[in-house]
Amino acid sequence: MKIDAIYEDKPRGVRVPVRLSSQGDQLVITRADGRELDRWPWRAVAQVEGDFPDGAARYGLAADAHAALVVQDVALFHAMAPQGTARKRHGKIFELPLLVWIGGATVSVLLLLFVIMPMLATILAPMVPDRWQRRIGDQVSSLLVTILTDEGGDANCQAPAGQAALDRLVGRLPRAEVPPFRLRVIQSKIPNAFALPGHVVVTDSILRLSPTPEAALGVIAHEVGHIVHGHSMERVIRYSLASTLVSMLVGDVGGGVLAVGVTQMSESGFSQDEEREADAYAADRLLDGGYSPAALGGLFDALKQELKLKEGRLEKWLGSHPQISERVATLAAYPAPANPTPALTETEWKALQAICKPPASDAPSPEKTPEPAGE
Amino acid sequence: MTSELAMSGEIPVPAQGGPGDGTRVEVNVARGALIGLLLKNLVLTILTLGIYRFWARTNVRRRLWSSVSIQGEPLAYTGRAKELLIGFLLALIILVPVMGVFGVISAMTPPNTLTHLIVNLGTLVFFSFLGLMAIYFARRYLLSRTAWRGIHAGQTGSFTQFIGTHLKFYLPSVLTLGLMLPWSQAKVHNYRAGITYFGTEQFSADAKPAGLWGPYLLAWGLVAAAYIGFVSSFWPLFIYSMQMQAAQEAGDPLPPLPDDIMPAMGGMGAFGYFALLVPAALVFFHYNCRMWSQFITSSRLGAISFRLSLPTARLLYIPIVTLVVLAVLIGIMVAAFAGFTAGVDSGDPAQGFTAFLVIVAVTFMLFVGLNLVSVAWVMVEMMKAVGRYLRIDNIDAVSDIFNRGRPAPRRGEGMADALGDIGI
User: Fold this and answer.
1) Looking at chain B, which residue has its C-alpha nearest residue A368?
2) Suppose B81 and one of A141, A168, B58, B284 were both cysteines; which one would form an S-S bond, judging by CB atoms 3.0 to 4.6 Å apart?
3) In this predicted model, what pLDDT tens digit does every residue of B189-213 receive, in sequence order?
4) Where are the alpha helices (DSSP H) in B251-348?
C-alpha cells in the first residue's frame, strides 16, 4: 500500500510531495521520482498537535522535529501503520524556567557539601581497615617529615635526656582506648605539630616556643585528640568528595585555581570544628592530670606573636584552624586547678626543649643511633 | 556552478597553489572582537564561579560559526546556553556519585600498593568508557545545533555501537603503543562520517592510511627516542629515591647517595632529550595536514564531494609560533617556581605566603594566555587555512536536501563538560 503525502521542512517552509509505504517497522518516505528521502521508525511516529491553516493532520517523530508529514487521509495512514503505532499524539514539550534549575542546583550542591558528604565521611572513615589507615599514615607522614625537617636537620630527635623527659611527659596521657601511634620530634624552624593514623609528629621549635611543659603536653594531647576522633581519615574522604564535586561544578577556569579555593572554603568549616574537638580533648587531659588548660592557650599566644598571624575575615573563612583568640578564650574558660605540680622539672623541661640540639655533655656521641623500626 | 574540469578529476593546480575550481569556504573572523568576547567571558565566568561558561561557550560558537560561509550563506549555531546548563546538571546527578565512589576508594586504599594500582587501572578503564560516551553525546549535540541554509546536521547510531566501534579500531593502537594510529584514525573517520548526516543526506568516507605511515612513524620514533633517553638518564636517581623512601618508612638511616646518580649528559642535560620533541611536533603537524587532506578528500555528502590539500610548508608557521609561545610560557613558569622556592626557603612565613600568591597568579595568567592564544590565534589560523585550501564540488546538489524529521537531542554535552575541559 502506498499513500501520497507532503514532506514539510518546517524551519525552511519547503513542501515536497512524497509517497509513503511501510516496510516492517519502518515508514519509508519516497520522492516523486522514486528516490528514497528518509525512513522513520513507526514506533516513534505520532500526530503533531497544532492549528494548521490547511486543516490537514501532521505526523512526526517529535513535537519539535524539523520535518513533518502532511497526511490528508488519516484513516488510510492508520491502516498502513503496524498495530499499536501512529495513534498517539506528541504532547507539548514543557520546559522548567532557568531560575528553577539554578535554584534547585544550588540547594542540592549546598546540601551535598555541608550535610551529605560530611555525613558520608563520618560513616565511611571507620570502615577503612586499620592496617590501610596506618599505611596511608606512614606514607604521608614520611613525606611531611621530609618537607618540614630543616635541611641537614634531624628527622628523629632522640637525645637521651630529652627522650627521657618526653617519655615522662607523654606517660601522663592515657593510652587505653587510644589507637597506637609513634611520637617523634623533628628538627624544624617551623613551629608545628601534626597527627596522622599511627603518627604524631612535633617540631622542636614548637617545644622551645612552649612557655611551660604543660603547654607542650597540651600540644601532644591535641594531636592525640585528632587520632582518637579519627579526624585524618574523615578529612581525606570529605576532601576527596568535596573536591570531586567542586572541580566538576566550577569547570576548568584558571587551571583549577578556583576549584581548589572553593573546596578549601567549604572544607575549612569542618576542619575548624575538628580543631575545636581536639582542643577540647587536650583540655580534658590537662584537667585530668591536674593542670590548667590555659597552659595551651599560652602557647597559642606565643605562636600568634611568633608568626605575626592576622585575624581577618579571610582567615576565618579559609583557615583550617579557628582564630587563635577564640581558642585562647575557650581554653581560659576551663576551671584552673589550684596549686598544680609542674609536669616536668626545670632540668627535664630544658632537656626536652633541646632534644634535637642537646648541649655537648648530654650527647655522648655525635653519631645518631639508628632508630628502632616502629614502636 | 560545477565545471567540467572539476568533475573529470584531472585538476590542473594553479601556480599560486590553490586547489583549483570548486566552491570555496569563506572564513572571516574579526580577531579583535573575538578576543574581547573571550576576555568578557573569562571575567563573567570567574565572577559566577564557572556557571557562566555555558553562556560563554554558546556566544563564542555563535560568533565562530557565523564567520564561516559557503556561497555567501553563513553557518548557524542554534544551541542555547540553557540546554548546556541543564545537560550538565543532569550529568552531574549520575557522575557525582560515580566519581565520588572512585575518589573515596582511591583515597581509602594505601598508596604504592598493588590494591591502589588495580583501583587506579580500573578507574582509568571505566573513565575511558565514560569519555567515549561523552564524545558521542557531545558530537551529536554539536552537529544537531549546526545549520547551513536552514538545514540541520545530525548524528545517527547508538552510543553502545559508537563505543564498541571506537574500542575495536583503537585497540590495535593501544596494544602497539600507538604504532597503528594512522590505521585507527582512518577507520574511525570512515565510521564517524557514516553516522553523520546533513538534512536528509548521509555523509560517507573511504579514507585509507596509505601515504600517512612515513611522517607518522618518524614522529613516533622521535618521541620514543626522547622518552627512552630521558627515562634512562634518570634511572639511577629513580632507583635511589625508591630506596630512600623504603628506608624512611622503615626508620632506617638513609642510603648513601651514589656518585654517578645525575644523568650522564651532565646534570640537567637530560632535559636536552626534550629537544627531540620539537622536530617530533613539526613532523606530527605535517602528518596531521596530510591526514586531514586525505580524509576530507575521501569524504562525500551524496553527490557533493570535497577536496582539501593543506600544504605543510605554507602552514608550518602555525606550529612554530605555537612552540615559541609555549617555550616562553614554560620559561616564565620555571622562573616563577624558582622565585617561589626562594621565598619558601627564606623561612619567613610572610614571604612564603607572598611567593605562594605570586605562583597562583602566574599559573592563572599563563592558563588564560594559553587559552587566548589557542582559540584566537591557533584555531583561527587553522580555520583560515581550511578556507584557503578546501574546495567543494557539485554543491548545487544541496538543493535536493531537506531537514530531517529526527528530533534533535535536547541536551548532550553535560557528561563531556563534567568530565573535562571541552574547549569552545
Assistant:
1) B253
2) B58
3) 999 999 999 999 999 999 999 999 9
4) 277-297, 312-315, 317-345
| Chain A: residue whose CA lies nearest to B416 | A248
Which of A145, A116, A199 lies closest to B104, judged by CA?
A116
Q: Which residues contact B140 (CB under 8 A, 6 or more apart)?
A: B154, B155, B409, B412
pLDDT band at B424 (very low <50, low <70, confident <90, very high): low
Contact status of B108 with chain A (Cβ, < 8 Å):
yes
Q: State which H helix or E strand residue A68 sits in.
A: strand A67-71
- Residue ranges with strand state E in B266-314: 299-301, 304-308
Domain A3-90 has CATH 1.10.3680: no
Report chain A residues whose CB lies below 8 A from the CB of B364.
254-255, 257
Angle at B128 between CA B122 and CA B130, to 5 degrees: 105
CA distance A100 to A94: 13
Contacts of A152 in chain B (CB under 8 A): none
For residues A294 and A331, the answer to whether their CB atoms sit within 8 Å is yes
Whole-angstrom Cα distance, residue B103 to residue A254? 23
The number of helix segments (H) and strand segments (E) in chain B equals: 14, 10
How much is the pLDDT for B4? 39
What are the pLDDT digits (tens) for B201-248?
A: 999 999 999 999 999 999 999 999 988 888 887 777 778 777 777 776
CB contact under 8 A, B99 and A307: no
The sign of the dihedral angle between the CA atoms of A328, A333, A339, A342 is negative
Best of A8, A9, A154 to substitute, by most chain B Cβ atoms within 10 angstroms, is A9
Task: Provide the shortest C-alpha distance from residue A177 to chain B (in Å).
Answer: 23
Closest CB from A237, A368, A374 relative to B104: A237
Q: Name residue, grid cell 605562636.
A: A303
Which of A287, A157, A31 has its CA nearest to residue B402? A31
SS3 category, B201: strand
Residue A367's Cβ-side half-sphere holds a number of Cα atoms within 13 Å equal to 3
- List pLDDT tens digits, range A177-186: 888 889 999 9
Q: Which of residues 311-340 of B touch A (CB under 8 A)?
A: none
Closest CA to B206 of B296, B139, B289: B296
Across the interface, whether the CB atoms of B404 and A237 are under 8 A apart is answered no
H or E segment and range at residue B242: helix B213-250
Please tell me the distance in Å from B53's CA to the nearest CA on chain A: 8
Sequence-separated (6 or more) residues with CB below 8 Å from residue A367 = none
Please give the order of strands across the beta sheet that includes A193-196: A182-186, A199-203, A193-196
> Where along chain A do its domains lie?
3-90, 104-359
Q: What is the dihedral of CA B55, B58, B62, B64, to 10 degrees?
A: 110
* Separation between Cα atoms, residue B285 and residue B293, nearest integer Å: 12
CA distance A61 to chain B (A): 6
ipTM of this complex: 0.78
CB burial of residue B392 (10 Å; 0-12, 13-18, 19+):
buried
**How far is it, in rounded angstroms, from Cα A175 to Cα A171?**
8
- Are B311 and B19 spatial neighbours (Cβ–Cβ below 8 Å)? no
B201 CB near a chain A CB, below 8 Å?
no
Distances (CA, A) of B297 to B22, B204, B283: 13, 11, 21
* Nearest-angstrom CA–CA distance, A146 and A127: 29
| B354 touching A (Cβ < 8 Å) | no
For chain A, say whether B256 makes contact (Cβ under 8 Å). no
| Residue in B82, B406, B420 nearest the CB of A98 | B82
> Which element (helix H / strand E) includes B70?
strand B68-70
Place of cell 560558537: B61
